[in-house]
Amino acid sequence: GAGVSQSPSNKVTEKGKDVELRCDPISGHTALYWYRQSLGQGLEFLIYFQGNSAPDKSGLPSDRFSAERTGGSVSTLTIQRTQQEDSAVYLCASSPGQGSEQYFGPGTRLTVT
Amino acid sequence: GDSVTQMEGPVTLSEEAFLTINCTYTATGYPSLFWYVQYPGEGLQLLLKATKADDKGSNKGFEATYRKETTSFHLEKGSVQVSDSAVYFCALTPRSNDYKLSFGAGTTVTVRA
């Protein structure tokens, strides 16, 4: 079946602009995760959604970052007023439930110029 | 906080050589341990895992044993192939938040024919 998909695959934006990154999880997966992969920080957890529970936002690096998950399926990660240090690959993953294997999407490469 | 330290790369080997990538962890309690692999141009995928002390995870000829005494989870393969060229990440999830993956920095492995 279809895996986790993310769009766009690449995004170049100017410093100060807002961007939205999209994640379509595997159908039926109740848990969804966002991670960031950057040269300086490696792979970092950003946010976790599980069903209708309040998300764990503890990994979001600043209040410029936010994410939502509509209808328990698609998720959007929004970065406001982008900075150069936001340049990274943003990875989305989903899993059938909490604690189960996470399946990763191909990522969105964000470049802030 | 919980963290993972893995062997710095890059590692370059000849086909049929023995591969070891060292990984140690720091965590409160007993985390679950994972090895993820990222092949060129592909997304992260789970290679193997172990959820309790002395468990051995294995897949595709790779093995890793959860060693509580040495807080280690070293990855080994007895005879590598060119197709094993990839970036390998050691990771953990803590018992308390068993969804929050913490990754090591990644080790790039190149296997030459």
Note the main attributes of this structure.
heterodimer, A: 113 residues, mainly beta, 6-stranded mixed β-sheet, globular, B: 113 residues, 4-stranded antiparallel β-sheet, 0% helix, 50% strand
Order of helices and strands of chain B: EEEEEEEEEEEE
Helix proportion of chain B: under 10%
Strand content of chain B is over 45%
Helix content of chain A: under 10%
Quaternary structure annotation: heterodimer
What's the total count of β strands of chain A? 10
Identify the overall geometry of chain B.
Answer: globular
Low confidence ranges of chain A: none
> What's the N-to-C terminus distance of chain B?
41 Å
Distance between the termini of chain A: 37 Å
Biggest beta sheet attributes of chain B: 6 strands, mixed
Given the structure, what is the number of helices of chain A? 0
Shape of chain A: globular
- Could you say which structural class the secondary elements and strand pairing of chain B correspond to? mainly beta
Largest binding interface between chains: A-B, 25 and 19 residues
Helix-strand pattern of chain A, N to C? EEEEEEEEEE
* Total beta strands of chain B: 12
Computed CA radius of gyration of chain B, to the nearest angstrom = 13 Å
Low-confidence stretches of chain B: none
List the helices and strands and how they pair.
The complex is a heterodimer of chains A (113) and B (113).
Chain A: E1 5-7, E2 10-13, E3 19-24, E4 31-38, E5 42-50, E6 65-69, E7 75-79, E8 88-95, E9 103-104, E10 108-112
Parallel strand pairs in A: 2-10
Antiparallel strand pairs in A: 1-3, 3-7, 4-5, 4-8, 6-7, 8-9, 8-10
Chain B: E1 3-6, E2 11-14, E3 19-21, E4 23-26, E5 32-38, E6 44-50, E7 56-59, E8 62-65, E9 75-77, E10 86-93, E11 102-103, E12 107-112
Parallel strand pairs in B: 2-12
Antiparallel strand pairs in B: 1-4, 3-9, 5-6, 5-10, 7-8, 8-9, 10-11, 10-12
